Amino acid sequence: MELGLVGLGKMGGNMRERIRRGGHTVIGYDRNPEVSDVASLEELVGRLSGPRVVWVMVPAGEATQQTIDELGELLSPGDLVVDGGNSRWNEDEKHAGELASKGIGFVDCGVSGGVWGLENGYALMYGGDTEHVAMVQPVFDALKPEGTFGAVHAGKVGAGHFAKMVHNGVEYAMMQAFAEGWELLEAADAVTDVREVFRSWQEGTVIRSWLLDLAVKALDDDEHLDKLRGIAKDSGEGRWTVEAAIDNGVPLPAITASLFARFSSQQEDSPQMKMIAALRNQFGGHAVEGAK
Amino acid sequence: MELGLVGLGKMGGNMRERIRRGGHTVIGYDRNPEVSDVASLEELVGRLSGPRVVWVMVPAGEATQQTIDELGELLSPGDLVVDGGNSRWNEDEKHAGELASKGIGFVDCGVSGGVWGLENGYALMYGGDTEHVAMVQPVFDALKPEGTFGAVHAGKVGAGHFAKMVHNGVEYAMMQAFAEGWELLEAADAVTDVREVFRSWQEGTVIRSWLLDLAVKALDDDEHLDKLRGIAKDSGEGRWTVEAAIDNGVPLPAITASLFARFSSQQEDSPQMKMIAALRNQFGGHAVEGAK
Amino acid sequence: MELGLVGLGKMGGNMRERIRRGGHTVIGYDRNPEVSDVASLEELVGRLSGPRVVWVMVPAGEATQQTIDELGELLSPGDLVVDGGNSRWNEDEKHAGELASKGIGFVDCGVSGGVWGLENGYALMYGGDTEHVAMVQPVFDALKPEGTFGAVHAGKVGAGHFAKMVHNGVEYAMMQAFAEGWELLEAADAVTDVREVFRSWQEGTVIRSWLLDLAVKALDDDEHLDKLRGIAKDSGEGRWTVEAAIDNGVPLPAITASLFARFSSQQEDSPQMKMIAALRNQFGGHAVEGAK
Amino acid sequence: MELGLVGLGKMGGNMRERIRRGGHTVIGYDRNPEVSDVASLEELVGRLSGPRVVWVMVPAGEATQQTIDELGELLSPGDLVVDGGNSRWNEDEKHAGELASKGIGFVDCGVSGGVWGLENGYALMYGGDTEHVAMVQPVFDALKPEGTFGAVHAGKVGAGHFAKMVHNGVEYAMMQAFAEGWELLEAADAVTDVREVFRSWQEGTVIRSWLLDLAVKALDDDEHLDKLRGIAKDSGEGRWTVEAAIDNGVPLPAITASLFARFSSQQEDSPQMKMIAALRNQFGGHAVEGAK
């Protein structure tokens, strides 16, 4: 089939390649002319035959909103927009409504795979009407990993991004699990070679997983991670997962702890710990350390 | 080689079978005569030719202590005891010392594998002197999974149980991660079929793992886990992991949250939440629910 | 001064009384004719001389929105609306804008005090323009506790509710602190009479506080809180505090733990713990407890 | 009465003064001759008439053990030792047993009060046999705050330190509660003057407390705590509280979060966050920050 693909960054560029390897025609547009196949969104739309399917793969928020707005102007009734970016799930219904008012369909799709997706395939979670999903199914089939799994029609519009968001929330806590275990092993003097313990865990254990394999790769590059600073960014999905949990009255202690650990790591100094130090000084005369 | 194996329960029985499949001679002893190969520990020791290796696979604590005490009486200098149970790592040094005073070697070995170990192999983490580990290496090779990984000499005596303990701590948080994600998906109405989302995650995602595969199996048995009550036991390793972290000043927020979630699940009613309800009533006149 | 007061429930009714004791004229309106001074909002507005000040003390959300909408129709330029309910802080700017378009001023005011406020006074945190605050200052002075503290002009519109929201977040964690300590004392057998320990803490300790005094009162009513069930409701402020923290990248581990503990207490059974039990069963053959 | 007091540091020195103000005779010993009343422990014991009461106020652990050992040699049957330091509660039974074998009584006493104790009195929680407590009661009465509260016979030997330990655990979470609230108010731009909000909370609110008063004092010294670094030490009691909870299967999410926040604050860089950064880099090619 023919696909328009907007956004050819780290993710989009590799996805174009994988879809093409699947035998489909992809016309890509990016603001960066060096990677773009066409000069404008208008040209991209003009080059597709109807009913057109355009996959949006740009940063969530303003960039996605603007692209969807422009496509709403350029596309025709019966066409379809897929938002494959990291939009917040409750944006999807709004986008779907805006496009539906012009007769244009909408599918949201959460995409997991990172830099490994080109070779291994991308895990896909999508939401939308069955007939809309059917229009883009050949592309889903090209993108997904070989084998039985890796793609799911998760429900109505928004379900794809919601499922991907929860995936990322789970990912936060799994990463935190390995990180905590690693720090404890490094801190205690019981185990001689922590990296070899991690390596051994890759088979036969309850915790064998792709993230563990990656941890071993990371430790092979830098045994004690001395080259790194302990700063971990967070993206929207982790935050939204906790917010969705609060909306639903669901306790998420481990995922939230993982998010907060990242918040703390991003701070040069901890205001709340200044207050603790100040209080200890007030009631106990405990020495405090002055600001650098 | 020849191995004495004490304890033929769920774990020990399968391990005997796997070691035998590896071509070794195993003489097993269990208090239950139906599964035991010999009538007594004394007979077991008598049937082995020296230097003897006896693997202890009984419950941690008193049962292990008693078995090691008895073996200390029965074995001879140059023999070796392996503690493959779930002993606390700081018991190992004590056991090693007691045996060393009689010229008997000691190796501790954390074993992961559960009911799957017989077919897939057991992950092994062991600690002790190199010469002692060498004495039992053929058995380790028979027990471990096929392939490159799954066994590690983690360090001196105690290192094996320490590594296994941390493994279990990581396991707690990984299980909690999936459990939280599952509850959120079930609670929100965004996703139509939560089980299919879990199934799809098995390939191409960041969170693909053996535990995820098991979650899908569990959901295939009972889609919404309606047949279960939300009560999760905990074993010593989770508790010891947190204690080891406290000893080392290491923050373990996700692992500890996972342990506490299990504690809460084991309570018929929550005393601390009674106090919260009582306080709300005191200052706000908020209605409280009476005891059943 | 003259005040219109809308909402004469548990809070509003007592506040009317305290303001009157302060020498002011209060005309109260409530849908319940038994407590209302007037038959309608229209009558209330008609009975006030301009510039009118009307204090809204109704449930946050729809009821507050509707009351503000109606007052927007009934009041005149130069009049003032005070929202003393538990509105979310980011609703305030919207309400202020809607009223400002009609020349009507707006002040938001977080009120703390519960059933004790009538006698002890209400702590007040308010936000809005200085000239608007000045219009209602005499009422603030009547409501606040005797003494130096208990009232603050926290900033622009929304600041009052924001400050009150954070107050409640802090309150959640303080309550949780005492609740956890109490449960631990009750669970361990070290201390013979937990209530007397709590009682003794009321003077000379670092943790002496009004909440501790209330805890002692509660224990005097019911020494082991046997009459209660361990279920703790939560109101909007706790949830909003965590959401505001996430918006600002601020880690709130203790406050969030307190919120999640309440969520858990509200569940008949824990879905996430079902998943943990299911996974333990899958990999370890651990017995699980069937649903009741 | 007559009291021997061993340890005249920040706490002990002020306690000597307060007990003397209460009309009692205190003979103090400290290794520092500038503050000591006698040249040696031997001299101190010699100067007391029997039955002697000696209060030990030295650092927990080795120093306390050594002092108790020496007193065991120097004292006579019928004498009494009070451990007023921060010993771990399960040390008490051991100390009591050692002394009991020589006919010497033992009382453990947790003391709260810090630098304020001299003027305000010290909160006391003590454990031991009734007849032993009676021997030291006059000193307890002199040390405790004026008024009804502030002292409690918490139970048998160990109960005093256990109660004090839990007091400190509660203190950790209360401090954390205020610290989190303060950081959120400072981070968000809703509130203009955070210090004034804190000040106002001192009356009429649910969270009014001595710790809040201290927070206001600290902010009066340094409005944004710019002079401090966000590093908070922890003492044994916080750690032991969590360990006691684990022993009893009691979930302590807020207290433990408070302890872990302190652990994190003590780290120059976070090993676990290095692992998170490494994993993000592995799967997503996310940029990481190199070590300084």
TrEMBL record, chains A, B, C, D:
Protein name: 6-phosphogluconate dehydrogenase
SMART domains cross-referenced by the UniProt entry: 6PGD
Family of this protein: Belongs to the 6-phosphogluconate dehydrogenase family. Belongs to the HIBADH-related family.
Domain 6-phosphogluconate dehydrogenase C-terminal positions: 160-287
A GO molecular-function annotation: phosphogluconate dehydrogenase (decarboxylating) activity
Pfam families reported for this sequence: 6PGD, NAD_binding_2
Keyword Oxidoreductase in record: yes
InterPro entries: 6-PGluconate_DH-like_C_sf, 6DGDH_YqeC, 6PGD_dom2, 6PGDH_C, 6PGDH_NADP-bd, HIBADH-related, NAD(P)-bd_dom_sf, Pgluconate_DH
Location of the active site: K164
BP GO annotations: D-gluconate metabolic process; pentose-phosphate shunt
Regions crossing the membrane: none
Keywords: Gluconate utilization, Oxidoreductase
Keyword Oxidoreductase tagged: yes
